[in-house]
Amino acid sequence: MAQGSTSTRVLNWFVRAGTLRLPDGTTRTIGVEPLVIGRDDGAQVVVVDREVSALHCELRASTEGIVVKDLGSTNGTFIGSVRVREAVVTEKAELLVGQTRLTVEPTAAKERVDVGFTDRFGQMVGQAPPMRRIFSILEKVAASDLSILILGETGTGKEVVAKSVHLASPRKNKPFVVVDCGSIPETLAESLLFGHEKGSFTGASERKMGALAEANGGTLFLDELGELPLEMQPKLLRALSERQVRRVGASQFEPIDVRVVAATRRDLGREMNAGRFRSDLFFRIAQVRVEMPALRERLSDVPALIDEICARSNQPEAAAAVRTWVERRLGSYDWPGNVRELVNVVQVAATLAHSPETIDDVLSIAHKAPAAGLGSASSDAETAFAEAKRNAVSAFERDYFTNLVRVTKGNVSEMARKCGMERHHVRAFLRKYGIDKES
């Protein structure tokens, strides 16, 4: 889809901003970007107090008031005498971190936040104010070499953000390399990131480039950064700071020119305070922080997302029927799987949209099945999560392919086209569930 298109609709986003007063009488403004308080030099508000954690808590403005969020501190964050994990302050209050007392005071009236007018960035679409603000930030930083840390729940589209930033940057014609830090075996982590020489360890049968060298000139996307083995973190920091890498078994360093974008669903503040993640690497990578909102926090974007998903699935004519079905059947649904879950549901609905009674029947069955990929676990509340998940996925797949056979009259090529799979994958699902395409 074309990047940079704008909506003529003007949106206003109003929040309760405020001020933070420090013990020495100085003040800091609290806005929509998190204001981190901690003992680490990288915190926006550095507090010299032995009982304050490296990253202790953060403050940010919201529509209701000032959100105070503890970052997994050792000694806790208190509002008055109450210890809080996350709370909204709506009037002047005393904040206690360690032995240091701070004053948080929200403004009396809400203030307008400039969110920009762009309703898409790269492959992302959204008209909700938080998304427009994210788009305006990414538009400004995409052309730079600043490292970006993307936060958010699973399924919110963190890799899509990274890819969109890459395509909007001067590096767009260079490599975009993805490293899933959660799947790196500790014994091979250094080789995967930095490469190795032939014979440098058992099994190293040839010289191999690492991910940093493969991304030279382009963008390295470190997915699930919070899972990176602790012993690898200082080595990665050194490579990024010095802009050079040395393969395992090599004696010489090689220069690299890499822009880093990382993502995580972990609370890295908590990880740093627990000693599982290095604060110096965090601040090196988190030069710009973007927090993707959950889909339940921007439900107004669902219709536009449905249109976009149908268009990318080459079924734009199905969008109206899918929007109607989602509004009727899932109007109060909170989408725990976020945009990824919406994509799955819309692709199924779009496949059957030419027959409204079929889409209603099929996805109603799927919605009532155990979780059915739609997040309802009430019928399996006493079943172990993994088993309940397997049952839900199986029920959904069986229903989906049974009805797909009916809709396509057993034409495997047509089934493959509609569900976006290769034909041998379709046949594998039919065999798995004993579905007769001739019946």
Question: Could you outline the blueprint of secondary structure elements for this entry?
Answer:
Layout: E1 13-15, E2 18-21, E3 27-30, E4 35-38, E5 45-46, E6 57-61, E7 66-70, E8 77-79, E9 82-84, E10 86-89, E11 93-97, E12 100-106, E13 111-113, E14 120-121, E15 124-125, H1 129-141, E16 148-151, H2 158-167, E17 176-180, H3 189-194, E18 195-196, E19 208-209, H4 211-214, E20 219-223, H5 233-242, E21 244-245, E22 254-255, E23 259-264, H6 268-273, H7 279-285, E24 288-291, H8 302-312, H9 319-329, H10 338-351, H11 356-368, H12 385-408, H13 412-419, H14 423-432
Parallel strand pairs: 4-5, 16-23, 16-24, 17-20, 20-23
Antiparallel strand pairs: 1-13, 2-3, 2-12, 4-6, 6-7, 7-10, 8-9, 8-11, 11-12, 14-15, 18-19, 21-22
Can you tell me about this structure?
The protein is α+β, with helices and mostly antiparallel strands and 439 residues long. It is built from 14 helices and 24 strands. It has helices spanning 129-141, 158-167, 189-194, 211-214, 233-242, 268-273, 279-285, 302-312, 319-329, 338-351, 356-368, 385-408, 412-419, 423-432, and strands spanning 13-15, 18-21, 27-30, 35-38, 45-46, 57-61, 66-70, 77-79, 82-84, 86-89, 93-97, 100-106, 111-113, 120-121, 124-125, 148-151, 176-180, 195-196, 208-209, 219-223, 244-245, 254-255, 259-264, 288-291. Strand 11 and strand 12 form a beta hairpin. Helix 8 (302-312) runs antiparallel to helix 9, helix 11 runs antiparallel to helix 12 (385-408) and helix 13 (412-419) packs across helix 14 (423-432). The protein is globular and about 80 Å long. Residues 1-10 and 368-381 have low confidence and may be disordered.
